[in-house]
């Protein structure tokens, strides 16, 4: 039985990896490890299909070390012992341990001395946050790297590579894929390479040849194979971003009916990832300090939608869209950080005042670090007048409060009160 396309197209060297340039690009950490032949155990974490296994196999291919793959949940201590014996004989084995967050204490205790000796280079793969889910004993012996979803162009590059590869891919098939179909497949899989390749392979294998022997993949075929509808068959392929933009602008404009319309179009397309991400952006960018509780409710609704999946996810999403539409609006937090960043980027920085500098080291007092600092908690109302901004920015005001919600009205009152005390 032939292995799946996603398996066959797995990178053999670091040069074959598409995406993850922050880890495997020229001069980046994993590339440096491989080039220097100084591998250390690591944990790769990120969403499914983003290349964790691919990086592990590429590291093994680039270093010529033996490569073994196990699953922490289903494989036993005996399986680990076999790998350890092989490591004793060959010198070093790279062990990809999937679902590493489910490694129990017995297996962990067995692995630790082999990690210490360097006989086993562990590459743990997990979708869970390793700082929360991985045992500290393992975590302290590994470097932790985040693997991110591929962007649309990187997915497209991978698909075209598979279509042209005659050894491992679909290059021996005469496949013609419409640009709209390729774009849809690259977009709706949300950075999951495995899903994109699986959808492509199903489309090729299940589509009858034309009279000239070619397999023509159209947008409806791809929609069926990935079970995700295109928002519209527009020529330029901008509809996806247009609808997301319209959703945000409708919420910002407090039009609940329009926002629900655009939400429904995204729900029908099955694009939960884009919906969730955009709603959280909206909650903090457009509602912000006018109603911080709405932001918290948005995060809760997004988490519920992720756990429920479609079709039920539509319910908490609709609820939070209505909530955000009819909430008071404020972009003051977004505008204030952007104003501060604008100053930083033109070099308007200035030195940190001496009394604010770190004083927790020997000799700091002689350097006048932190000497004149006034501890606000020692003063009535927890406030004391002292300079915090650098000298060249003492009169700058980044935060400009709005009065569109009770919460920010209270912040405005406190902000003005502090400014008046400063003037005194």
Report what the structure shows.
There is one protein chain. The chain is an alpha/beta fold. The chain folds into four domains: 5-146, P-loop containing nucleotide triphosphate hydrolases (Rossmann fold); 152-226, Helicase, Ruva Protein, domain 3 (Orthogonal Bundle); 239-325, Zinc Finger, Delta Prime, domain 3; 333-423, post-AAA+ oligomerization domain-like (Orthogonal Bundle), CATH 1.10.3710. It contains 19 helices and seven strands. The strands form two sheets. Strands 2-3-4-1-5 form a five-stranded parallel sheet, with helices on both faces. β3 (93-98), α6 (105-117) and β4 (120-126) form a beta-alpha-beta unit. α9 (152-164) packs across α11 (193-206), α11 (193-206) crosses α12 and α13 packs antiparallel against α14. The longest helix has 18 residues, at 406-423. The radius of gyration is 27 Å and the shape is globular.
Give a short summary of the structure.
The chain is of the alpha/beta class and 424 residues long.
Structural class comes to alpha/beta
> Percentage of helical residues?
40-55%
Radius of gyration: 27 Å
Shape-level CATH architecture of the largest domain: 3-Layer(aba) Sandwich
Distance between the termini: 82 Å
Percent of residues in β-strands? 5-15%
Biggest sheet features: 5 strands, parallel
Keywords: ATP-binding, Nucleotide-binding
Organism: Vagococcus entomophilus
Domain AAA+ ATPase: 38-150
InterPro entries: AAA+_ATPase, AAA_assoc_2, AAA_ATPase_RarA/MGS1/WRNIP1, ATPase_AAA_core, DNA_pol3_clamp-load_cplx_C, MgsA_C, P-loop_NTPase
